[in-house]
Amino acid sequence: MKTAGVGLALALALAGCHSPKKLAGADDLHRAARDTASIARESALLVDQVQRGHVGADYVWVHQQALQEDARRAAEPLHRAAPDALRGLQQQVEAASARLSAGLEHTPLATAGPDELARLAQVFAQAGAQAAALRGDK
């Protein structure tokens, strides 16, 4: 009997591991939008500091890596399925997140020239504005 109980418990535990992921809800998507907007603003500030020559290359590299990781983490809820009613919102937040990530991953800010920094400042401003409009502030 004990063996059957252990077997049943193990089967239930394994079944839980393979169950579908939780759907992304409105709160998840709004949080992803808020986080994306915040990371985009921080990225734009970093670009501004680089343009002004206020930060060293090592600091810029480390900060850019941290921002990339933050952007990946903020996008995690966007990789889950969403109910039909939220798919439009999810796609819009995904677009802002993708724009932010592309900007962060495309060019090392520490070695970017003035024209590239200006372009990235615009990318981050656009991604931030796009995400901020989707925050769902209460």
Task: Provide structural commentary.
- The protein is 72% helix and 0% strand.
- The protein has 138 residues and is mainly alpha-helical.
- This is Lipoprotein.
How is the secondary structure organized here?
Blueprint: H1 2-17, H2 26-52, H3 57-74, H4 87-106, H5 114-132
- Averaged pLDDT, please? 88
Instruction: Specify the biggest β-sheet.
Output: none
| Number of E strands | 0
- Uncertain stretches of 5 or more adjacent residues: 14-20
Number of helical stretches of at least 4 residues: 5
Distance between the termini: 54 Å
Tally of separate domains: 1
Cα-based radius of gyration, to the nearest Å:
20 Å
Q: Fraction of residues in helices?
A: over 70%
Structural class: mainly alpha
Q: Beta-strand percentage? A: under 5%
- Give the ordered list of helices and strands: HHHHH
Overall body shape: elongated
Pick out its properties.
138 residues; mainly alpha; Lipoprotein; 5 helices
Précis, in short:
With 138 residues, the chain is mainly alpha-helical. It has one domain. The chain has five helices and no strands.
